[in-house]
Amino acid sequence: ILTVTFGVVILDYTGILAVFAAWFEPFFTLIGLPGKSALVLLTSVFANIYSAIAVITTLGFEYRSALILAVMCLISHAFIIEAAVIKKTGSNILYMLALRLIISAVAGVLLNFILPDFEGAIGMQIATNEVTFAVMFLAWLKSSSLLIVKVIVLIVSLMFFQKLMEEFGIINYLIKVLQPFMKVMGLPESTTFSWIVANMLGLSYGSAIIISQVEEGKMNKKSVELLNNHIVVSHSLLEDPLLFVAIGLPLGWLIIPRLILAIMVVWLRKLVMWLFQKSKYLQATKSI
């Protein structure tokens, strides 16, 4: 966090960020975001949520823009690590990466239309080119230190909560409770445990468990494909959104839009699979 935020501050202070932002201004204007949002998304895609949050708090965004960016980052982040997980489970990497980018853009456009106006801002909100380097440095140090403390407290609390759930067998109880809801989301019951893992631990940390479920034959190819279509759009419903909550964003808006989009993606994918199977059946019938 310190490295990323300080690098961004230097880019902003020297004016390099302004040039970079101008290149992406036309695209992000369609989503109601400033050009500097490109740096946040690129950081999210090639690094992780922590780095994206660091950039948001360093550059400073209006509350509404920060919220739209947060949802987009929650969909599109850590591509390199999470793509490796998807490949291990048998899904096509290029398709999944394209899906995440497209749904991320769709989420941004939709939120720009439906989000109400919010007052306030997130982050430093300092015009770094109008202050001395010393003032800018102290503001960065204060903002980054506070963010790091919040992240440490949050992660330790989540780890403690996770251990409690494992110790008292709460995960097994959740599997029974959530199985009926899998049908609503368009997912087979066999994906329930992996879905819980992906949303409690995320794809990076929960990858070993998800991959083992596939290798042990507890999910067939179709089930895995549907699960992956869901979790690449919406996963880590606890840890990642709470990181954004720590900087002042509302939890509901960080979870519900992703969950709805993920469900829509799965049902659309099921429709495509059904049409493909029907097409193969008709071709086979004609040949006979």
Key structural traits:
14 helices; 288 residues; mainly alpha
Class by SSE composition: mainly alpha
Radius of gyration: 21 Å
- Range of strand content: under 5%
Task: Give the proportion of residues in helices.
Answer: over 70%
Strand order of the largest sheet: 1-2
| Topology, number of strands | 2
Distance between the termini: 63 Å
Quick check: average pLDDT? 85
Overall geometry: globular
| Helix and strand sequence | HHHHEHHHEHHHHHHH
Biggest sheet: strands, sense, closure?
Answer: 2 strands, antiparallel
Low-confidence spans:
none
Oligomer, anyone? single chain
Number of helices, counting only DSSP H or I runs of 4 residues or more? 14
Summarize the structure.
77% of the residues lie in helices and 1% in strands. It has 288 residues and is mostly helical. Helix 5 (63-75) runs antiparallel to helix 7 (93-114).
